[in-house]
Each structure stands twice: as structure tokens, then as C-alpha cells.
Amino acid sequence: MRQVDRLFFLLSNHFMKETVRVAGGQGFWGDLLTAPVDQVRKGPIDYLMLDYLAEVTMSILQKQRSRNPELGYARDFVDLLREILPDCVEKNIKVLSNAGGVNVAGCAEAIRQTADELGLSGKLKIGVVTGDDVLADLDKWIADGVAINSMDTGEPLSSVRDRVQSANVYLGAEPLVEALGRGAQIVVGGRLTDTGLTLAPLMHEFDWKFDDWDRIAAGTIAGHIIECGAQSSGGNCQYDWQNIPDMANVGFPIVEASPDGTFIVTKHDKTGGRVNVQSVTEQLLYEMGDPKAYITPDVVADFSSIHLADAGDHKVRVFGITGNPKTDFYKVSIAYSDGWKSVGTLVYSWPDAYEKAKAADRILRQRLENLGLKFDVILTEFVGVNATHGHLAGEPRADIPEVQLRVGVRGHDKQAVTRFTKEIAPLILTGPPGVTGFAGGRPKVEEIMAYFPTLIPKSLVETNVEILEA
Predict the structure, then answer these.
(1) Which of 371, 383, 451, 380 is nearest to 418 (CA)?
(2) pLDDT digit string (tens) for 129-142?
(3) Domain map of the chain by residue range?
(4) Looking at the domain covering 337-449, what would its CATH class be?
């Protein structure tokens, strides 16, 4: 080894952190508002990752932006930063999020203005990651003969192209690593993978190489464990759920990672919830698919290689993870308009609650037929009887005290769906007795967004990282 290279190696290892703490603060847009604040203030962390996006969220944001060009991002993120930015600057906590939605530039500018209002001008760099929004590229790719087919049905994109509302590539850790390397303290993008939001800090801090598949897989699985917020620290946990302590003050999960790719899952002291092997296992199984091939833009992780061990009070050690080379394709989430829907409910009381609800359903369906209304689907559920378990629930007991009748329709004829909304209330006086629970006016008519997942070659997508000085 040359003397200069050896000196650089020694210096790099001297300053490399032994442990990096990445905290999960948001499992979805609408998650517990106090969680990220607690993660920043109740104990030491180095990074805060916030996952705001789901598949349908992008189309919702696209519609918002079409009505107002200044919208199209998760505004809750900016409100949150207004509260925690001073803490983050003081403690040198870096924040990564996909809250930019379909207007990353607008989100970044709102963050810059917020920093200025807080007197933090000159103290903050914002990393702006773009390139995931490929809506404008679809027609060119189709014209060039790129095969864009649904992963679910095999249908070509051309079959729904005229109804497409959004198209976003799932970007991995690479542009995030670049942004952190260029000094960004806040990194925001659009359809960034939830796993990449955790993986990138570990790659940046530990100088992991992009082809170090085992460590990349470990960082990816770390991200998978904390991506859903408290779901790995006691929330939505089936095992012994009655005895999970203080869920009103549940602590969100934190990964304490080491350079070798092993890590501890934990939470802040004096917070509620529970981190143990069972809670982490349940989260690992969430959206897993093939356990030997969990595919992300960064790696194909092998979940069957994961080892978990109790490491103390609210601590689980994760180790032994292996991974395989990433694929040559990006997954693209495409959303398109697919008709209209509406759901209405009424509650029927004892005696004969279930029989009344069934009779009301028959009457409603007959009236819809008499009106000549056509729907793609009419779905009836009897909440309190079989809405959760369907036919497996069996017949209810005769003295069931109350049943909620829930009827939904979907179809491409908006007028038919709208007329359905006017047929629920009349059942109150023109149907079985003992009805209640009708409040809030007629049911709403909502547009249906359908999901078209597909794959495209990574060579078609170009990402961009800009550093915005606050």
C-alpha cells in the first residue's frame, strides 16, 4: 500500500463512527405527529428518516399540484421541520425524507423559507433529489419500443395510458449518499424507497461500497425494520398485545448500526411500546414476498439469512445477513383513473339486527336494479358479523345487539354511482325498523386510482442532486 493511500486509510478509519443511530419517525403520511419530535428530543440519534409515501399517494399529490402548482408535496413535513429544525441543527441530526412527492423543488423551497424564519440562514444545506418522476417520459418510451407491461396482468401501458395520473420510479440510496457526501443536513426527494432512507446514512458514514452486497442488504433490512414506525416497537403487534406497556407514549424504533453490517434495533428509554425478537419478526414478515429475494434498487436481500437475538431490555441484535447483486431494472409505480366508488352505512339494532341488515341490503339492491343502474361491483359487508373474516365467521348468534350494514359500489358511470348515494338515506323510513348511525349526509363519490406496477431499464432514468443553501 502506498504511503499516501495508507495515511488516507488510517485517517478514514480513525474518524469513522463505531455506531450510527438511525431513527424511524414516520411510517406513513398521517402517522403519529409527536413521534419524530420525540425521536429528536428524547435521546441521542444521528439521523431521522421519515417515510411519507404510498403507491396511491403520488396520484393524490399529482392532482393537488394540477389544481395548485405550489402543492404536490407532504406539507406536514415542513410543519414538522419548523418544530425540530433548531434541535437538528444544534445536535447535528440529519433528516432524510421522501416528502417531496411530485413537487420536490417546491418542498425544498418551503424548507428553505422555514429555516430563514427560524433564523437558521447560513446554517443548513438541503439536498434535493429528483429524477423519479417519469410521467413526461412515458410516451417517448412507448414510441421507442420500450416494453412497459403490468407486473400483475402483463397488459401493456398503452391500454391505460390515456388515464395515467402519475408515474414514479422507486429510487434507491445512491442519490441520497451523494447528497450527504455534499454536506446536506436535510435530504428530500420524491419516490425514494423507504429502505434507502436508512441505508444511505450507513453507506455514507461507513463508506460501504455499492457492490458490498452483504452490507448493503443489512442496511436495507435495517430500513425495512424501521420503515413502518412503531410497527416494530409494539404497534400493531399480535404477540402478547395486551401486555405491551404504555402504548399511548409508544417509542418509535431506532437502528444502532456498526460498520460490519450488524445492528441493534431499540427505542429511546422511558418510552412506551416494546422491542423484542417477536416484534421485530412480525415487522420483517410485512410485505416480504419471496424471503430469498427481497428486491430493491440497491440489492436483492436474502431474508432467510437474518439472525435475531435478544440483546437486553428493548434491544434486538440483527446479524448474519447476506445479499445478492441488484437488478438492471427500476420498479415504476404508475397510477391511473379507473372509475368511481362510494360507500354508505346504516346500523341496525336488536332484536333481529342481522336479519334487518340483510333485508335492507336486499331492498337496496332491488331498488338499484329497478332504476337500471349498472356497476362493476356491488359489495355488501355486515360489520360485527362477517366484514373481517367473511364466510369463515359462520352464522352470528341470534341475540347479536347491533350490525352495521356497509354497502359499496364501483363503476365507470359516475352518474350511476352518484345516484347510489341518494338511495341509502331513504332506507331509514322505507326499510326495516331499528335503524341508526346515519350521520354526515350522503356518502361521497370518490375517484378510483388503480395501480400499474412495471419495470424499466435503469439506463433510462437519470437522477439529479442539487444542494440548496438555506
Answers:
(1) 371
(2) 999 999 999 999 99
(3) 3-132+170-327, 337-449
(4) alpha beta
